[in-house]
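Deliverable D5.2: sample structural annotation.
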Amino acid sequence: MGAYKVWEILKTALTRIRSVFIMVNVPTPMNLPHQWLQPESSAELLPAAPMVDKRFTCLQALHNPPRPWIFGYQLIGDSMLLRFSQQILRQPPILSESIRFLGYCVSGQRIGDLLKRLKSGFYHIGSNVVLMIGTNDLVKNCQAEQMIHELRRVLDYLCTKAEKIVVLTLPPVPLHEHYTHHWTRLNKYNDFIRTLNNAGKHYASCKSPCATG
């Protein structure tokens, strides 16, 4: 998905939330539908990739506010938000051992990777965050139930650190959009994100026809 498309999505999402919802604080703990809490089978659990080494935190330790940053919100996700940060916000990523990242936006990052980085204290977390994660899990054919389970864990953790959270739904991945299985998993994952609005969260739908994580 192009950086300018991400810009339109974020601008629309944050403008709508600020003007309509008056920024309701995120409740803790989350009150999510029970059927989404656990994956169907432990066999679906997939190991996360290695974390970015904590010694690289010194490269961005002085960032205040935390980056990438837009409209008072910290961006958290994968290379889609990383490209947006570089091309639109002019906040270039850091390259360390072939890994491109800035804050918690890491190229190739999956949901489980993000959770590990959050818990490791790899970088600081702002009071307001925008989260868009899961594209790389779709590419790796992770089951929707597992993605939802890990996203909920990420949100549970973010609820202990951030006051306001915006979760963006995912667009389809171009190389996979001709496969029914891709759409089944994508729709199930995005439907879960939409339920967050009923649990006191806010979401914005991403309608771009393409994405790469």
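Annotation notes: The chain has six helices and eight strands. The longest helix spans residues 3-21.
The annotation will be released with the project's public dataset once the embargo ends.
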